[in-house]
Amino acid sequence: MKNGSGYLKKPRILPKTPKIKNIDIFDLINYYAGSGAYNGGRLVEACNIFENMIQEDVTVCLTLSGALTPAGIGGFINQLMKKGVVDFIISTGANLYHDLHFALDLPVYQGDFRADDTELLKNDIVRIYDIFLPNQTLLKTDKFVQKVAKTFHTNSPVSSASLHHFIGAQLWKKGKKPEYSIMATAAKYDVPIFTPSPGDSSIGMNLALLKMSNKNLIIDTDLDVLESVAIIYNSEKTGAVELGGGAPKNFYMQTQPMLSQIMNIDTQGHDYFIQITADAPHWGGLSGATPSEAVSWKKIKPNQLKNNVVVYCDVTIAAPIIFSYILSKGFNRTLKRLYKKRFEYMDKLNNAYSQV
Amino acid sequence: MKNGSGYLKKPRILPKTPKIKNIDIFDLINYYAGSGAYNGGRLVEACNIFENMIQEDVTVCLTLSGALTPAGIGGFINQLMKKGVVDFIISTGANLYHDLHFALDLPVYQGDFRADDTELLKNDIVRIYDIFLPNQTLLKTDKFVQKVAKTFHTNSPVSSASLHHFIGAQLWKKGKKPEYSIMATAAKYDVPIFTPSPGDSSIGMNLALLKMSNKNLIIDTDLDVLESVAIIYNSEKTGAVELGGGAPKNFYMQTQPMLSQIMNIDTQGHDYFIQITADAPHWGGLSGATPSEAVSWKKIKPNQLKNNVVVYCDVTIAAPIIFSYILSKGFNRTLKRLYKKRFEYMDKLNNAYSQV
Amino acid sequence: MKNGSGYLKKPRILPKTPKIKNIDIFDLINYYAGSGAYNGGRLVEACNIFENMIQEDVTVCLTLSGALTPAGIGGFINQLMKKGVVDFIISTGANLYHDLHFALDLPVYQGDFRADDTELLKNDIVRIYDIFLPNQTLLKTDKFVQKVAKTFHTNSPVSSASLHHFIGAQLWKKGKKPEYSIMATAAKYDVPIFTPSPGDSSIGMNLALLKMSNKNLIIDTDLDVLESVAIIYNSEKTGAVELGGGAPKNFYMQTQPMLSQIMNIDTQGHDYFIQITADAPHWGGLSGATPSEAVSWKKIKPNQLKNNVVVYCDVTIAAPIIFSYILSKGFNRTLKRLYKKRFEYMDKLNNAYSQV
Amino acid sequence: MKNGSGYLKKPRILPKTPKIKNIDIFDLINYYAGSGAYNGGRLVEACNIFENMIQEDVTVCLTLSGALTPAGIGGFINQLMKKGVVDFIISTGANLYHDLHFALDLPVYQGDFRADDTELLKNDIVRIYDIFLPNQTLLKTDKFVQKVAKTFHTNSPVSSASLHHFIGAQLWKKGKKPEYSIMATAAKYDVPIFTPSPGDSSIGMNLALLKMSNKNLIIDTDLDVLESVAIIYNSEKTGAVELGGGAPKNFYMQTQPMLSQIMNIDTQGHDYFIQITADAPHWGGLSGATPSEAVSWKKIKPNQLKNNVVVYCDVTIAAPIIFSYILSKGFNRTLKRLYKKRFEYMDKLNNAYSQV
């Protein structure tokens, strides 16, 4: 019989009566699993892949693109770091800048995407889609960045991870609500935070301003490249949870060709890949590129279809579900504290390269 | 002070530590509410608006577009009808056709969107994105449609609601799993199901086939227009939960201009509007058109911003959340049984029109 | 050498200096062809496939979804019919209703998508994204539809193609600018226009209104199914240019399963397929479904990759380019005048079916 | 009369018979202008705004995001620089890296987005959606980057613009086809090219590799911030043509808050804004953020609606049209040669800041 061909091996879809009392996060995931279709199905795969990453001691990278911290996603991310299930972070600068408001207890408000921007301008309010920030929130954050940066003493250029670690540590000393901040939390748990574009945010702009006066703090993006690649090189298995695409996605993905294409070190690519995005493959850009395309670049291991998934969804909807699922499962890994291992890891990478 | 202008009246966004044990559906919604941003924020608004519709005894229409029943969404919809919180349905024909498979206990399988379609063709499997259906599932469903249609005796054209009610009733007699079917459940609870395009599905194709032999069953879409408009006219308040856009969205929205523009009966538009869609306004089509645009057409009442929302999301992710929330709340309205009131309502509409 | 594997057989991409004087439509297409990448590349494929369809005497269907006629696309479509390169049309009702304004010389204005809809409502203007229509344009069109429908004498239900042909013919008698109208032009050249959802537009609503008074004109969608399938059955080769997706796409695609799945007549699917859409496959719906998925349904012939293309683009950008290219090529086919062949074709289909 | 309210002041839309012989780029733009609707309408606005920018001597920035140079868009960009209508560029690193292949006459091929990536991997071919690059193209480009970087002598960190200028100049000496390269062309015409993320591409990776051996070339992103802001500060009027969004869009937009928010220098925002994107506002990110949202940030001047436009379209379709239009118009501005003015402009900015 033709249908015995092996194509019909997954479960039947059945529109069963859903549970309607005391529905918990597992019931919801079970519902999605029972359908398995479209992005509801992908959401379950993302949960399962994340779970597998945790259980197989994969070094997990979280990437952040889009205006996510202003939307309050930090609460989840902090828990993920604390539980040892996110080992390092790659973020746009803007997500890190807006993260500071919360640590400094400066207000960020729910707003309305239909607001009149000329009126907002008159009222000293800036808008991120449907989020309103009083100008004072920005200006006070700027002052904090400048003050902290002035106290960062170094004789040589540093990676952005060093800067972010320093700022995070200062938040514990000077911030009113450091527990709200992913930069502070990352510093506490030695989770390195890289940004591919250190000049491309108000943090970068404040550093640039200092440069015009007295303080010359240089972020050397090559160090970010090397530190991030060193983490990948020194990990048994690697995988990412990508919230959005953008430069952070590219920066994570390129760690593999850095090894194989540039350094001529034998690698086959990352082991796991989860992306939540509203982009699409057919526009051709890297943000929407499929895990399959990444296989050709040795960015993702071949023949591992089941370890890769793209959930086409707004991050603010999908991420809380996945994170709630993971946290509810009670995972608790020993912290990798990769920030402290940077130099050791870079030495090993250096050694490997010297033998190529 | 400028910021006292009234723009900053919504809650502050705070990245609080999320609950990570025993997370239930209300916790999840609370999390989204705490952010309020982007489509996570819209999801909460959708929950709240649906809740308001139920509490204010609004006549609630559910519209279905896209291949939703094959994905198994029927389980939720059946409960919504049973609990009296969905009063009538407008659906594409395809959603109704594929609903039949479940009632007939014919298999629909989880599949893979990356499958080789030429191979599937060889193996007599048809694909809906990542859902696989054996050809036999289609062919047996076709036979059922033809058999049932032959027993539908009528001297005059009927509305699609009549046909769907008849099929639904037959499913309780001849189907193995009628409880899986929205068409069967709708018949049980006298929930009318309209389709704007009765010829545009395998149900329509099977009727067309019968026409070539001996059985001439005519669906008169004008009757669908009149019956649906009569429901709106005879309702105190009206609102919709639109899953996708397409013809069903248009068919629901046009009930208002049918009254105001075509019949010259004074109306201002629907009271409530929820849409889940992956479309966007800037392509210009009705599927992605905003509730605001609908105001200009008297399709939606003006100045009621808070009663309207579009959630930009895959229905298979967002709908289970909204529906779980609503069902968990334990709402239980007296069934409106609109199917039985069709003729009474049309008489009243006729009377009103005769007096214009 | 590995690269001799056959993967690198298409042209090299070279960023040559573009022509910058007297650039004509062929230069533009050449530019896209020189790149071949992303949707610019798809646009060229669409031009080539359309060209092949014309040269191989394919029966070409044009489908219309989204609010295209209000945007003025009719001018191109009229030429395509006149030149015999579009043989029949499947359209949403709304596109046909709004087409009437132009024939009746009723104004449709360029507007602004940022307009205040409550203000527009007060000013009796309805909005389609960035198009403004005075209410009078609708009301006068409604009167015309009612007046014409009253003069349509028939003893039995008709297909929508019959209705549209009748209206089109009347436009030549009573319309001020029939040459602007695709319905009028289609009537002139005997191009059948089907709608899958005859009740789902102001045309349908006006017919429904007449039903409330004195005039009972019934559109039998089964006839639309049979007439459209008969065209496919009686054509050597078939193909479509799909502007958008929606019910018209489904209605066209289902003509093949109507033959193979429902009537048990051996077919393998359409020969050619062009779609311009802003939808995407990963939402699971038919609007965004790939030609590949259609292969599993016998909607499109297998192993004919090069005859199918999806251009991800707003129709208002891509269609004028493709149509300008085709028209500039000077194609001029003998008109098929399929409207006149409906009954002959249906007889042949009946015969075929009687022998299954 | 209500309709005299001023809302109906734009032209009527009329589906006129299009020109079908000798259609040139102006005919095509005229057609779009005649419709004015949806993204076809936006395309005309983009042409007009670009034209205005040129005529009013606006300093024009071009931003590049997504994999555009591999698709061959460089040919147009080179002409725009030569004609003096693009004054500086902000690009992702990947676009600059892939630009090098063409200058070095290394092959980039048209491919197929449906290719089997595991097979491509076996055949040493990497894929960018539907573009195929032999691994050798990458490896030879890497060698060139390393060779050139080793000859770049500097005692202090430099901006990315300096690096790109140096590479561009070297391409004229050592490249086989420098005329194909935007980096070479930019160097020739002293058009500065900034990248917000110098480590985030194979250029950055090659520099990082050199750092592991003997060559320490540091890109200081703060210098990029200052040089780009200095250009804005020293320009009478400013505007951008944004191809895609991403970090380059953010980097351009932030030049204004750098002045107003960070440096406390009075500005109101950019004068003109054109973006071509497939993103959407409702996902909340900066890539899809509207010009209106930018007004609240003082990134774009308020009350200048007509000077801003977003074209929702694949860049590979829309950009060649806009660029062909602009080039065909024969504009020829005196080159601004901003690269040479960097230090002078930064001095002036420094002076201004010292007086705040």
Describe the structure.
4 copies of one chain form a homotetramer. With 356 residues, chain A is α/β, with parallel strands linked by helices. Helix content of chain A is 47%, strand content 11%. Chain A contains 15 helices and 9 strands. The first copy, chain A, has a 6-stranded parallel beta sheet with strand order 6-2-1-7-8-9, with helices on both faces. In chain A, strands 3-5-4 form a 3-stranded antiparallel beta sheet. In chain A, strand 4 and strand 5 (131-134) form a beta hairpin. In chain A, helix 10 packs across helix 12. Chain A is globular. At the A-B interface, helix 1, helix 2, helix 3, strand 3 and helix 5 of A face helix 1, helix 2, helix 3, strand 3 and helix 5 of B.
Helices and strands, with pairings:
The structure is a homotetramer of 356-residue chains.
Chain A: H1 25-35, H2 38-55, E1 59-64, H3 74-82, E2 88-91, H4 93-103, E3 109-110, H5 117-122, E4 125-128, E5 131-134, H6 135-150, H7 160-174, H8 182-188, E6 193-194, H9 202-212, H10 221-233, E7 238-243, H11 246-253, H12 255-262, E8 272-277, H13 291-296, E9 308-312, H14 315-328, H15 342-354
Parallel strand pairs in A: 1-2, 1-7, 2-6, 7-8, 8-9
Antiparallel strand pairs in A: 3-5, 4-5
